[in-house]
Each structure stands twice: as C-alpha cells, then as structure tokens.
Amino acid sequence: MQVSPLEYANFCAFLQQSCGISLGQNKQYLVVTRVRRIVRDNKLASLADLTALIQKPSARDIRQQVIDAMTTNETFWFRDNYPFDYLQRVLLPKYQREKTRSVKIWSAACSSGQEPISLNIIVDEYCRKLGGPKPFTVDVVGTDLSSAMLEQAKSGLYDRISITRGLSAERMSQYFEQVDPDTWRAKSSIKDSIQFRTLNLQDSYFLMGKFDIIFCRNVLIYFSQELKLEILRKMHAQLNKNGLLFLGSSESIAGMNDYFEMVDCSPGVAYRAL
Ligand SMILES: C[S@@+](CC[C@H](N)C(=O)[O-])C[C@H]1O[C@@H](n2cnc3c(N)ncnc32)[C@H](O)[C@@H]1O
Q1: Mean pLDDT throughout 31-35?
Q2: 267: preceding bond cis by omega (within 30 degrees)
Q3: Is the pTM of the predicted complex or chain greater than 0.85?
Q4: Each residue's pLDDT tens digit, 163-206
Q5: What is the C-alpha separation between 154 and 96, in angstroms, rounded?
Q6: CA of 60 to the centre of ligand 1 (A)
Q7: Which of ligand 1's atoms lies nearest the C-alpha of 21?
Q8: N or C: which end of the chain has fewer CB within 10 A?
Q9: 81 pLDDT more than 90
Q10: CATH architecture of 82-273
Q11: Ligand 1: which of 18, 64, 144 to mutate, judged by most atoms within 8 Å of the beta carbon?
Q12: Any idea which architecture 5-70 has in CATH?
C-alpha cells in the first residue's frame, strides 16, 4: 500500500485527536504494517479511504480496531520491579503503621492487566505474611483506551509467552491456573477485585475519584509535551495529599516541579503530589 504525504498527515491527525498519540515524521511503514489487514478486510483501496471511513460516527468498531492496532500494548509482570518493591517494603508498612483503612491505586493505561494484577499480588503477599485479618483494603482500578486490551485484562487469560515474562514459577503456581497447554488464567482471588474501565487519558478523570497511588507508565512517551503536562496536571488533581505517582523508567515530570516532588525509591523514583 502506497501512502502519500497528505494521506499520512491526515491519518496522523486522526490518531492525535482520538488518542493523543503523536506519530512524528516518516512512520508510514509502521502505519501500513499495523492497518493493512483492516484496510483489506473492509475492502478499502487506501489509507485515505480508511481515514475517511473512521471519521464517520457509524464506523465505531473499525475506528476502535484502528486505535487498537496503533497503540503499543507491550507490558509484563512486575515491570521495572522497583515500584512493586517500594510498595511492599515502604508503602504498605506505612499504611499499616498509620492505620489507613482503605488504599486506592490506579493503574492508568494498564494494557492487558499485568500491572494491576502484579499490584494485587504484592498486596496479597504482604497481607498473607502478616497473618490474621487484613490491616486495610486495597482497591485497584485499571483503565485503558484499548477495548481489546481491557477485554483480555478482564478475562485474565495469558498465553505461554506472556505468562512467563517477569513472573516467578512460585507466583505462577500461587496465583494462576493452567486452563490448557498454552493458556493460564489469573485466579479470581487476584483478579476479580480489580475494576477495569475504559478511559482515554485525554478525557476528564473527574469520575475516577481520588487515589493514594497512580501508576501511569510507558504511555506518556507517545504524547506531545503539551498533552503530557495536561495529563500530569489532571493526575495531580486525582491524588490524595502525599499521594504518589509512578512513571515509566524513560518518563519524567519535567516542567511540573510545582506539582510534584521527587521521592527516591532506589533504583528508581516516584513523584509525591505537593
Ligand atoms: C506500552 S503499554 C503500557 C502498559 C503498562 N502501563 C506498562 O507499563 O507495562 C501502553 C498502553 O497505553 C494505552 N494508551 C495509549 N493511548 C492511550 C490514551 N490516550 N488513553 C488511555 N490509554 C492509552 C495503550 O492502549 C496501551 O495499552
């Protein structure tokens, strides 16, 4: 499929407007690779046809397929490790000491669910080590723009490759059950309490409520600086006093020093809402 500069520019404008993703220059090859099947399945002749079709209100499903195809959903269990380690070593003991009754955690852009499930595993391990009644309740909310990813997250089903990425054999047997030779399912005890919801990070977060911790990792890198700052401001507004924000290892709050202060969680950092 040949793509002219105008066709590419129009497609990029659609993507930027619908999900905030800034593709930048010269990614025609990436676009073609990702949407070729959708173009073919809908018997369209070009990227221009596809861009025209997905602007129509009636083409909701195809529009969602294009967004699903264009978002990068890479994720794995306990990604970067240090945020989970910090939660287990520092934050949960602090909540317990302070007799906090309820903790709310938001995994924004949670992809296929590995991040919120990893969070629940840490909380479960912590509470089980204590024995006795749980000192607090922890509610984890997972949101994403991609309906396909959210469906997978809700199903809790993972194939042989994704189940092993970052998950120890011990945790796999404790928290997952094998349903067939190539598929594992997260046990209800670790998945059912997670609220999975569709949310475009460009939209309002008002209905999300307030959180003690927000994980917003490996998604801001796809956005313009302007959108990134707007998202960080909105996340700040959803954090309780002293609430913590964790970003991906290549992301930072540059330009938001009036809103957040850095917290050392060696080998990484988090950001405390001011
Ligand atoms: C690379 S994954 C990151 C998953 C997880 N946070 C992690 O760090 O492993 C990026 C996720 O961001 C989601 N995403 C992209 N644009 C978004 C937007 N505008 N609103 C909400 N989610 C978005 C994608 O669907 C994808 O699942």
Answers
A1: 95
A2: yes
A3: yes
A4: 999 999 999 999 999 999 999 999 999 999 999 999 999 999 99
A5: 29
A6: 20
A7: 16
A8: C
A9: yes
A10: 3-Layer(aba) Sandwich (3.40)
A11: 144
A12: Orthogonal Bundle (1.10)
